[in-house]
From TrEMBL:
Keywords, ordered alphabetically: Lipoprotein, Membrane, Palmitate, Signal
The protein, known as: Membrane-bound inhibitor of C-type lysozyme
Pfam families found in the cross-reference section: MliC (PF09864)
Organism of origin: Luteimonas terrae
Domain C-type lysozyme inhibitor: 56-119
Length: 131
């Protein structure tokens, strides 16, 4: 038991030393001017995929879908917006949300829209004109 007290004291001392704040750098160095804050937005990443907007006609119901290129789609239908995420499907790409809205993209411009308490709709779409 004689070794316990010194070991405990050293452990507490090291813990307190690790928690002490680091010294702030001095700003008195005239050779390094303070960094100016930039108000310009960061340039867009050329490697990032551009969002794609598809206007669907789902058996008379207009649906606008904005695919962000990162596995999500924002769907505007009947005055409501839904953000859907990618889910694995046997064919095509399936986008779902927790409320039960599903947009199942099949092929380049065809899809199936499923919503709770509404009949399923077969959709045909066309890309929106580039802005």
């Amino acid at each position: 038991m004689r070794w316990f007290t010194p070991v405990l004291t050293v452990a507490i001392g090291l813990t307190l030393a690790a928690c002490s704040p680091a010294e702030a750098p001095t700003v008195d160095d005239p050779a390094t001017p303070p960094a100016a804050e930039s108000t310009e937005p960061a340039p867009p990443d050329p490697a990032a995929p551009a969002p794609q907007v598809i206007h669907y006609d789902c058996e008379g119901t207009p649906v606008d879908a904005t695919f962000d290129g990162h596995g999500q789609v924002s769907v505007a239908v009947d005055g409501a917006n839904h953000v859907l995420r990618t889910e694995d499907g046997p064919s095509g790409t399936k986008y779902v949300d927790d409320a039960g809205v599903v947009l199942w993209k099949r092929g380049e411009h065809d899809a199936l829209l499923t919503r709770p308490d509404r009949p399923d709709r077969i959709c045909s779409g066309a890309p929106a004109a580039p802005v």
